[in-house]
């Protein structure tokens, strides 16, 4: 048995090799193992082969035409580990010429994919989902190193992504298997001489651009609906998160999707970003991120756009709320993954009469949050980059100068910022409106519910919001008055479960996500009309 084991410490240090070889060898189109044992020191032979495919020395290759390639640019983009602030990975800096080639092959691959039966498309997606779950360890480890996601949450992100892909395959065969049948005589002046058949057809090439904070989950939430609907897919991963995305794409490669159907191009936004989003070969853009999405929307051509952008999710707390429940949700909603979530609670609007009690309860819980490296599963880990930490600090300094009450001392070490609750924040402070994307949470005391709704609606964002009260009638009225894509009653904002519709209004986005909505968005309706020489009515 021992001769079947191989150990590659160099690769292991890159988070690539974490599986043990056993004798129940392998299945799958490209030699993918059917099962792995997470042994953390050795690896299956087939997995050695697979991983050597995606690495060139220290650098990760990009994926095009079913192959792992080095860019002809000869240049690499470094990925900085937010914890150590040192270069941890390197990815290819793809050129515009390489983007052109990817677009060409994506277009060709899509044509035959559209002719692949729906059940076969679903079957491949199920296969990719199960490989993704088997590969959770190396993908999760990249998430830890690239974006400082706590180790446990990193695994959860990958498993959730596998579930999303499977759910999407199932949902796709149901909703794409149905069309409509219309008859002409329902419209005034018409006899029943026309039968109209509608079906959903693919758009072509979908460009997917996810953000750094959920690079795997927010990539598959675009990839799976695009593929089940018969589109091809070009992925442009975020720089921080690119290696996790490449590992994830490798799972789709191993599942055996046709060549050119999925591509993953890495590189600098400044060199290939605009080139990709304005490329004539792109038929649809699904983007999740910040203000970059607004700029992309203005530059993109006449194609469907799915934009999920920033948020400033308000948490409105009424006098009758269960304050322990509110405090628990503020901690979960405001501080998990160090506040780097689009749906994080980003401003608390609490009735003055219960504000002292709530702030005290939240402070007690803040004191229990652990702060440190993601490898140790700390609650608060370094934010993604130095520039992000500097931005957050700018908001804190502004609040200090304008007289906010600091419930904790402001503390920062490199990219690590300790959790901070700012009480008595006023509307003239930047943090009342801007998205810190860090573990700093403002509390604004309000004297009426209307004041809270007004603050929520005065924001340029409208992603989610939440309201805490025991009075369901009031909750409904307040929820209806809040100009946000979703309102949560008695819980923190959240994107999942992934089949729920998810959308922002105003600067928070265009269109709606969630599995069903994304599949529909990545299709268009085609109709075929059968014209009869004489009217025909069924009698029975
Ligand atoms: N609404 C949502 O569903 C949702 C979910 C997660 C994150 N977000 C938002 O994302 C932001 C944080 O993520 P981020 O910092 O990665 O966002 P970002 O806007 O800086 O980057 C998002 C993506 O755009 C790419 N990009 C940058 N310049 C580009 C260009 N010119 N052309 C094409 N692509 C380009 C980046 O590489 C990245 O992949 C926050 O504002 C957060 O609220 C929103």
Automatic annotation (TrEMBL):
Keywords: Cytoplasm, NADP, Oxidoreductase. InterPro entries: Ald_DH/histidinol_DH, Ald_DH_C, Ald_DH_CS_CYS, Ald_DH_CS_GLU, Ald_DH_N, Aldehyde_DH_dom, ALDH-related_metabolic_enz. The active site is at 308. Its EC number is 1.2.1.9. CDD domains: ALDH_F11_NP-GAPDH. PROSITE patterns: ALDEHYDE_DEHYDR_CYS, ALDEHYDE_DEHYDR_GLU. Its main location: cytoplasm. It is an enzyme of class 1 (oxidoreductase). GO terms for molecular function: glyceraldehyde-3-phosphate dehydrogenase (NADP+) (non-phosphorylating) activity; lactaldehyde dehydrogenase (NAD+) activity. One of its GO terms (cellular component) is cytoplasm. It catalyses: D-glyceraldehyde 3-phosphate + NADP(+) + H2O = (2R)-3-phosphoglycerate + NADPH + 2 H(+). Belongs to the aldehyde dehydrogenase family. This is NADP-dependent glyceraldehyde-3-phosphate dehydrogenase. It comes from Prunus persica (Peach). The lineage of its organism: Eukaryota, Viridiplantae, Streptophyta, Embryophyta, Tracheophyta.
């Amino acid at each position: 048995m021992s001769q079947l084991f191989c150990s590659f410490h160099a690769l292991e240090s890159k988070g690539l090799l974490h599986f043990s070889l056993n004798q129940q060898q392998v299945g799958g189109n490209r030699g993918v193992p059917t099962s792995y044992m997470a042994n953390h020191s050795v690896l299956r032979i087939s997995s050695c082969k697979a991983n050597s495919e995606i690495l060139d020395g220290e650098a990760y290759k990009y994926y095009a035409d079913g192959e792992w390639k080095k860019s002809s640019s000869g240049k690499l983009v470094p990925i900085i580990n937010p914890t150590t602030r040192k270069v941890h990975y390197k990815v290819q800096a793809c050129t515009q010429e390489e983007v052109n080639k990817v677009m060409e092959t994506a277009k060709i691959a899509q044509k035959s994919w559209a002719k692949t039966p729906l059940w076969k498309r679903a079957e491949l997606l199920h296969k990719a989902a199960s490989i993704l779950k088997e590969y959770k360890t190396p993908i999760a480890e990249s998430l830890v190193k690239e974006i400082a996601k706590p180790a446990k949450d990193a695994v959860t992100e990958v498993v959730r992504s596998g579930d999303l892909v499977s759910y999407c395959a199932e949902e796709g065969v149901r909703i794409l298997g149905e069309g409509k049948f219309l008859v002409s005589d329902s419209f005034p002046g018409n006899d029943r001489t026309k039968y109209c058949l509608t079906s959903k057809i693919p758009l072509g090439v979908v460009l997917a651009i996810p953000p750094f904070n959920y690079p795997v989950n927010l990539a598959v939430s675009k990839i799976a609906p695009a593929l089940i609907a018969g589109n091809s897919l070009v992925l442009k991963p975020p720089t921080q998160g690119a290696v996790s995305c490449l590992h994830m794409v490798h799972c789709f490669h191993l599942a055996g999707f046709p060549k050119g159907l999925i591509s993953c191009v890495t590189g600098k936004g400044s060199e290939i970003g605009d080139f990709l989003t304005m490329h004539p070969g792109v038929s649809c853009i699904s983007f999740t991120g910040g203000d970059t999405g607004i700029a992309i929307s203005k530059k993109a051509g006449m194609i469907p756009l799915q934009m999920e952008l920033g948020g400033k999710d308000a948490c409105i707390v009424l006098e009758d709320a269960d304050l322990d429940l509110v405090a628990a949700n503020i901690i979960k909603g405001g501080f998990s993954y160090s506040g780097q979530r689009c749906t994080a609670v980003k401003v608390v609007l609490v009735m003055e009469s219960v504000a002292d009690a709530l702030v005290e309860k939240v402070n007690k819980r803040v004191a229990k949050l652990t702060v440190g490296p993601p490898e140790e599963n700390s609650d608060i880990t370094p934010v993604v980059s130095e520039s992000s930490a500097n931005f957050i600090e700018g908001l804190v300094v502004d609040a200090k100068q304008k007289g906010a009450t600091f419930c904790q001392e402001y503390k920062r070490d490199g990219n690590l910022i300790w959790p901070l609750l700012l009480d008595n924040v006023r509307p003239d402070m930047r943090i009342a409106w801007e998205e810190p994307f860090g573990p700093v949470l403002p509390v604004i005391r309000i004297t009426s519910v209307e004041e809270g709704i007004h603050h929520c609606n005065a924001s340029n964002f409208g992603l989610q919001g939440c309201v805490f009260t025991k009075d369901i009638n009031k909750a409904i009225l307040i929820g209806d008055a809040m100009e946000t894509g979703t309102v949560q009653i008695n819980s923190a904002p959240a994107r999942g479960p992934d089949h729920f519709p998810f959308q922002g209004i105003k600067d928070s986005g265009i269109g709606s996500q969630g599995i069903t909505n994304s599949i529909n968005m990545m299709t268009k309706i085609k109709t075929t009309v059968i014209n009869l020489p004489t009217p025909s009515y069924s009698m029975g």
